Amino acid sequence: MDSNALSAGYYSPEDLAALWISLKLATCTVVLLLLLCTPLAWWLATRRSRLRTLVEALVALPLVLPPTVLGFYLLLFLGPRGGGGWLTGRLGLAPLSFSFGGLVIGSVLYSLPFVLQPIQNAFQAVGVRALEAAATLGASPRDRFFTIAVPLARRGFLTGAVLAFAHTLGEFGVVLMLGGNIPGRTQTTSILIYNHVEALDYRGAHHLSMTLLVACFAMLLVVYSAQRGVRASPVPT
Amino acid sequence: MTLAVSVDLKRGDFRLQADCAFPADGTSALFGRSGSGKTTLLRCIAGLERVPGARLHFQGETWQDAGRFVPPHRRRLAYVFQESSLFPHLDVRRNLEYGLRRVPPAQRRLTFDDAVALMGLADLIDHRPEQLSGGQRRRAAIARALLSSPRLLLMDEPLSSLDLESRAELLPHLERLRDELSMPILYVSHEIGEVMRLADHLTLLESGRVRAQGALHELLARPDLPLAHLEEAGSVFEGVITGHDEQYHLSQVDIPGGRVALARRPVPIGQRVRVRIDARDVSLALKPPEASSITNILPGPVVDVSPDRDPAQCLVRIAIGERWLLARVTRRSVDRLAIRPGSRVYAQIKSVALMR
After folding, report:
1. Residue A110 and which of A98, A221, B138, B181 are 20 to 30 A apart at CA?
2. CATH number of the domain that B129 lies in?
3. Which residues, at least 6 apart from A64, have a Cβ–Cβ distance to it below 8 Å?
4. A112 is in which domain, residue-wise?
5. Would you say the ipTM is above 0.90?
6. b/e string for B204-235 if b means 16 or more Cβ within 10 A?
7. pLDDT tens digits for range A123-168
8. How many distinct structural domains can be found in chain B?
9. Chain B contact set for A148 (CB, 8 A)
10. Which of A130, A135, A236 sits opposite B87 (nearest CB)?
11. Closest chain B C-alpha to A149 CA, distance in angstroms
């Protein structure tokens, strides 16, 4: 790495703006996804509904769908002539396409399975026994959910949150289709890396790439060490 | 009778069709082989299974009928599961407090410290469930159930899946629980020995149907029920310790209709105890025996003589006080002594048979 790597000149103002947008985007996405996925994962883990298979397939779609496809349809939907654009228009707001809000919606959809599946698996692993025991001890369904299910599924929440955060940082196709690469507004780090390379600014590309590499690696370390803790719980003799 | 249950449930080949009632005091056992529907019935009572058409009434409250289903958390009962159900993310103290905190202080029937003392958990309070042995987990689960101050304590085979040592360790705790708390207990078991030590009332379940219901001592001695034909068949008597013989290390117990000596029990004079007399340890004589090593002699009239499973043996039922004593003797002896209903006999029980 450069000798002045850690000095202020390591990142250009444009780089800093992109990093900030990526950070903001990943944070908003994770918060929204946790709020959205917790009830959905609980429903999928505890109810036997015919809708369940359909919902599971639908939310797993972003795993296999090309990001450009998702981005394209979201662009149409959120644009001035789409259903989302119509709605924002009725509310007196600007269309969400080419805006930070649009990026958040795209990221939420794109990273949904990364949060939903770990939480759903963790809820399933809680099992009925602990919840039944809590019920016979006088805990209402809501009480059981917060005092038994959520604490026992905490590793699923951690895994989901970290994966979604890292996945959002690395998102490219959806952002490009939907956000359009506007510096300071919708230009994320991964897009800017692409711009640097296009402009043959390999040094700039390298700075940002290394930042993402290290950040993502650190986050995966957190996930794997948390999962390790599940297998090897300390049992003193 | 203050818990009335009516359930009709079909699940695959199995059908549970039970109409029964349980007293609201003392310990009731739900006894039957594996697969007879005991656990399912217990789960229905707890509200963990919602069987359509079932009816449940407890002390004037309707827990379930055509238009009503009270969920388990509003029934104010507690349930001790067959396997460990301690919350793995909480230590023993927090597990115990889980039930306690959900009871308004005015309705609490025992304190945290009472439950800890009763179940012998003082040294384990800061441990996590995975650090406990099977027996310790069971005790913690029972303490947790007690602290929720239930109006009814349900236990599903509290001693099963434990090794002999843990069982021996847990049984006295269950006896204390029965004797010291006036909490109605309904528990499931397939071990008659356990039932004979703990229960007052018995419901016999056979392939999903209630075969018989009543006081434990009556059902044990009824020759038309399978209990009297079990290898470990016997009778139970309630008595009072009236003296200790320190020289020979025996305790003297007065039961209605007689007096028996048994192994010295570490309890004070005046204490109520239960005496179990196995049918195979009882022999019969027509006259009070003299110069015999047997000192436990209970006189009484023969109620009936019934064939046993083994054609060489008979079951003789003798009335002692208000209860029945069951004797398993050979058919030859019955014929030789001409024992028939109404005969007056002297039942002899070796004290060493009462050492347990």
Report:
1. A221
2. 3.40.50.300
3. none
4. 22-47+61-229
5. no
6. bbeebbbbbbeebbebbbbbebbbbbeeebbb
7. 999 989 999 999 999 999 999 999 999 999 999 999 999 999 999 9
8. 2
9. 87
10. A130
11. 10
